[in-house]
Specification:
five-stranded mixed beta sheet; Nucleotidyltransferase, domain 5; alpha+beta; 3 domains; 18 helices; 22 strands; 39% helix; 17% strand
Length: 533
């Protein structure tokens, strides 16, 4: 009966596509917002000419492959091709720099959030705006290009984020959801801050922000329809038809908030994967500027304090891949997704039997720079005392702790600001092994951390929910928080992990050494200046 209903009612299905840092994922939900088909494509950033970037050609290939896999799964399940959906949306990594000329040509390679090359621009903008502008933000990248006298700046006709770019390719519309826009430029009352726009013009009079940045839309607003060119962008076979309405494109931070129902005051979520960031919805403004804290918004415009760390699981993944090679030397096949997932589970779980009092191991997971600890570049490091107990369990515990070190430093600032939390939900690859990442995160922050099964679908599911909200709001003017609470999460089960005192004590011991040992990391960057990130 479900199969028959779906293939006759595709207008009640919702499609979400997210271009994350390590994979592009497409998720299709039914009318009850349950995922019924999905597809993925793995990709990686590359370090070229001193900058982290992704190829837009690879983006197109990846979006098509993820959609193709989703369509095939749908057709296999429901015995009919997927030709349309009720609504859809696009999410992607926030921030970065995508600049285009008057003929829609890309003027410079895509510069991602991971780059830490904009410190002079960020400092100048903070001084001018009296507002924190992190190095990742689009406006920092733009102004750094100005300071660098890059010739292409004078040719800029349009700037956007990765989500805004894909949405533009699908619809022809140059728009952006307010949450993603808040990572381009400071937001006030649902639009780019007018005074700061004028302040920027006084710094550089070569362009006006509102002339070249995408138009800002709120959650629930109509953001265009899938064009013929857009349908071909996703499905060159021609089976998927144009005409589907799209919601405003959003950043991965915003869709993470939606996927965890963390968009009201005193709620927050943590997304932990290649990077890790915590989003806490604020009751009141912070007392002062903190360069470690971004002020962004929810998809419906509420102010959010964001602790963003460029590095989380990349070093963990590198070590686990190395262990996989070792296993391969003994004939083990870890190439299949199932076997690889089992290897991750066993290695993560091994950390649970580590010695709580072993303070002789120290690690830094810095693949790239980390502004929270004033690092322009990164060098992954593992340091141990000769006398320290060195077992697999202790090794894995240290790697897991190192993935959370800078996040804790940022969260300590919010604690000093008396930012209060009633709910903290986690999602992302760090939480895939049941009970492990969650336990370590709860210990690192000394705060209960919850996860849901549905949150595992991440931002692709979150943007599908925003697409569904846009469609439902046409006939029912409910708020986004009401939609999520009543329609999506009313019966959701939350698995909560409270801080274990022994793990909390162990992390505090690690953190004490972590802070002292940052000097080692800085020396490593100086000693190996030719070793690129």
């Amino acid at each position: 009966m479900i199969n028959e209903f779906l293939h006759k009612n595709t207008d009640k299905t919702f499609l979400g596509i997210e271009c994350g840092s390590t994979r592009i994922k497409a998720v299709l939900t039914d009318e009850n917002y349950r995922p019924v088909a999905s597809g993925t494509f793995d990709w990686e950033n590359s370090f070229e000419n001193g900058l982290w970037t992704y190829s837009l050609k690879n983006l197109r290939e990846g979006a098509r492959e993820a959609f193709r896999k989703l369509s095939n799964e749908y057709e296999n399940k429901f015995k009919t091709p997927l030709t349309t959906v009720g609504a859809m949306g696009v999410s992607a990594m926030m921030h970065g720099y995508l600049a285009f000329g008057s003929n829609n040509q890309l003027l410079a390679p895509f510069r991602t959030w991971r780059n830490t090359t904009t410190e002079p621009a960020a400092k100048a903008l903070i001084k001018q705006f009296h507002f924190n502008v992190p190095q990742r933000w689009s406006i920092a990248h733009l102004y750094q290009a100005v300071l660098n006298n890059e010739p292409h700046v004078k040719e800029i006709a349009f700037m956007t984020t990765l989500a805004g770019y894909v949405h533009w390719q699908l619809t022809g519309e140059k728009v952006l959801g307010v949450g993603d826009a808040s990572g381009m430029f400071p937001i006030e009352n649902g639009d780019y801050n007018s005074k700061m726009c004028e302040d920027f013009y006084s710094l550089y009079d070569g362009l006006k922000i509102k002339d070249v940045f995408p138009r800002v839309l709120n959650a629930g607003e109509f953001a265009g329809r899938l064009s013929a060119e857009g349908a071909n962008f996703l499905d060159p076979s021609g089976v998927f038809l144009p005409g589907v309405p799209l919601c405003p494109p959003e950043g991965d931070a915003g869709t993470g908030m939606v996927a965890t129902n963390s968009i009201t005051e005193r709620t927050g979520n943590i997304s932990a994967g290649t990077s890790v960031f915590a989003m806490i919805v604020l009751e009141k403004a912070l007392s002062k500027i903190h360069t470690e804290i971004d002020i962004v918004t929810t998809p419906d415009g509420k102010p959010v304090a964001m602790v963003h760390c460029n590095n989380c699981t990349s070093d963990l993944d590198a070590w686990i891949n190395l262990f996989g090679e070792v296993l391969g030397c003994f004939g083990a096949d870890i190439g299949t997704p199932q076997n690889k997932a089992e290897m991750y589970e066993k290695l993560y779980t091994a950390a649970l039997s580590a010695d709580f009092d072993n303070d002789g191991l120290l690690a830094y997971n810095f693949f790239s720079g980390e502004p929270i600890v004033s690092l322009e570049e990164g060098r992954p490091l593992f340091v141990r005392k000769p006398s320290a107990k060195f077992t697999l369990a202790d090794f894995m515990r240290t790697l897991l702790f190192s993935a959370l070190g800078t996040l804790r430093l940022g969260m300590d600032i919010l604690a000093e600001e008396d930012v209060r939390l009633e709910q903290l939900l986690g999602h992302g690859g760090f939480f895939k092994t049941k009970g492990v990442g969650q336990k370590f995160m709860a210990a690192a922050l000394n705060t209960p951390v919850s996860v849901t099964e549905s949150a595992g679908e991440g931002g692709a599911w979150g943007i599908a929910l925003l697409a569904a909200y846009m469609k439902k709001r046409q006939n029912n003017p409910l708020s986004l928080s009401e939609f999520l609470a009543k329609d999506v999460f009313a019966e959701a089960e939350f698995l909560c992990e409270t801080p274990d005192p022994m793990y909390v004590k162990s992390f505090e011991m690690f953190l004490k050494n972590y802070k002292k040992g940052l000097a080692i990391e800085k020396v490593a960057c100086e000693v190996y200046p030719c070793l690129k990130n």
